[in-house]
Amino acid sequence: MESLELFLVILSLLLFLFSFRHKNGLPTNWPVLGMLPALLKNVHRIHDFCVEVLEKSPLTFLVKGPWFSNMEMLLTVDPPNVHHIMSRNFDNYPKGPKFNEIFDILGDGIFNADFELWKYHRRMAQSFLAHPRFHRFLAKRVWEKTENGLVTILEHARTQGLVVDLQDLFERLTFDIICTLVMGHDFGSLSIDMPKIPFSKALDDAEAVLLHRHVIPRRIWKFMRWLEVGKENKHKQAWKVLDEFIYKCIAQKRQEIEHKLSNKNKEDQEEDFEGDDLLTLYMMNQDKNISIDLNSGSSKFFRDTILNFFIAGRDTTSSTLSWLFYLLSQNPQVESKIRQELSSVLTSNSLDNFDQLSDELVYLHAALCETLRLYPPVPFEAKSPVKPDILPSGQKVTPSTQIIFNLYAMGRMKSIWGDNGHEFWPERWISGKGKMKHEPSYKFFAFNAGPRTCLGKNMAFTQMKIVAAIIIQNYHIQAVEGHLVAPDISIILRMKHGFKVKILPSSKYV
Length: 510
Description:
This protein is α+β, with helices and mostly antiparallel strands and 510 residues long.
């Protein structure tokens, strides 16, 4: 009898819950469960789900989790809100403990850091990335790796009529490049035999869980982490692989530096290490206000620094290049215009003055910006205020409010980009005089905004232009018919099933 009564109670509750209808197509705030059912139902397509929700709301929508879960997310793509949080009231919106807990694997690197530690990271990175010598080194390294590594594989695929995963090739390319820039060593992942790189796979596994931590109540994913099950267990195993690889690199670099220092006079040390890789730069240029030295106690600091730069340098660039060539495969008229521009600007010795010629590649730059608008490599940004605040859109936020900027949705809002906001149209970035139009960072948010604007923006454009120029001049990328291309659910907007393509000669498409 008691079982029957319990069944009737549960049945009545379910009937009560599902008697509600979605208001204007927006998620229903169910009793007890909040909007969790809608999130779980759409977690596999969370990016497009956010587009649908924000299109039906005034660019801002409050997502409420189950009762007592302390899960409240304010989705917003409203440019004034972005400007307020990222610039005008920047000090009230640090990354904070919640962000650090979700992105715990990044440690105290620049992505997680706040206040003085963040300023230190930013100052050091800026001095390295802005150096003219580094820019020349970067351009040379990317050009050589693309010509000698990527083109070799593409040419092999073309002559043999093979299908290749272009996303995998770009990830291998950028992985090798960032290894050189960060540690001064090329691991040779980009080769015809396609060696398996455990470190690269571990990066993918670690990133995959981070988005789920934003849409699943904190208590649930922390309980899963404690039980070491599901995605949390996969995350833990990936963490071990990453640490083993990075700490080994740090130990090798420490030995290398100590060996060099033992054979150099103190006054010659700075000159000896000028222009070296990023890890060497951090080890040799220590701030007295930061507790870092060359003994083993500093290893975690260097580990966090390396991992942050690996994610920034590998994933964002490879993601954008993958989506660029996908969009070009769907829009051959854009590819043709880029090829014409390349023919008129670049010569056989373009590497020597690529920085100057790069500014003349206006249409290619516009196509990259358009790709970043539609497929931002980091599709969301999370913030919480230290003190209660009122956003320009009128919403009140408190320290318990998690504010989510969805960049994927932002690039598709008609109220921001016009009625053709869903279309790939590079011309929107070009003025009547043939120059690039400036869009404010709080509208074009791909490189962040305010004091945290990405320091590697110019570095990223240099890499992407070199790679795109070499490929488009020599090949046409044809997407395999029937291959499903869809965004993955991760903190990096990768293609879920890769990008399977055939390589054809460019001469047929001039």
